[in-house]
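Why do we care about 3D structure at all? Because function follows from shape, and shape follows, mostly, from sequence. That is the central idea of this module. The next example makes it concrete: a single protein chain, its amino acid sequence, and then its structure expressed as tokens.
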Amino acid sequence: MAKLVLVRHGKSVWNLENRFTGWVDVDLSEKGIEEAKEAGRRLKKAGLKFEIAFSSMLKRAIKTGFYILDELDQLYIDHLKDWRFNERHYGALTGMNKDEVKAELGEEKFLLYRRSYDVPPPSLSQESEWHPIHDEKYRNIDPSLLPSTESLKDNQRRAMQAFHEKVAPLLVEGKDVLITAHGNTIRGMAKELDGISDAEISKFEIQTGIPRVYEFDENLHILNVYNVE
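And the structure:
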């Protein structure tokens, strides 16, 4: 029986400032570092270990993986990064304070952009310093693949493409896999894995630093899903 463990990174410095972060590569806050370490301690207490780990290409997810593996004394395993596990791109909302956006747009449109499944925010200009085409970490990726905005559906599509390409074959082999990623990325993955409806996904939350465990049989059927709290 193979296990997949998904962990949302600990709180970032922009989480604390209540800003739309998306692809901006902000760091973990002190609280976020402690949340990551606590996730590692929870996994250790539960007796979980891994053959391989994945993260997005954003430092808050990468460092969360590092702190977890450090707590498990497993820094030696492969820890791979894939941009497709990046957070949802928030388009023109990137960097903006959420309360200010809500006041400007109104509750209905704010929730539509933030929580709906298939409605993206307005696009971020490619001239913006925060557009991924200007970030050297993506220099080897086809620029046409780098988003200017995304819905949760878009985020889900790329994350599940990476899952089926890189993670699923490992699970079929019986290997246990850790993925440290982001709230929307994990929400999108859970939507497909758990069969959550388009309407219900808006209410589905992933807590920071709380590992979500999926147990699979050899045919990749899910046997059990639970959080390690």
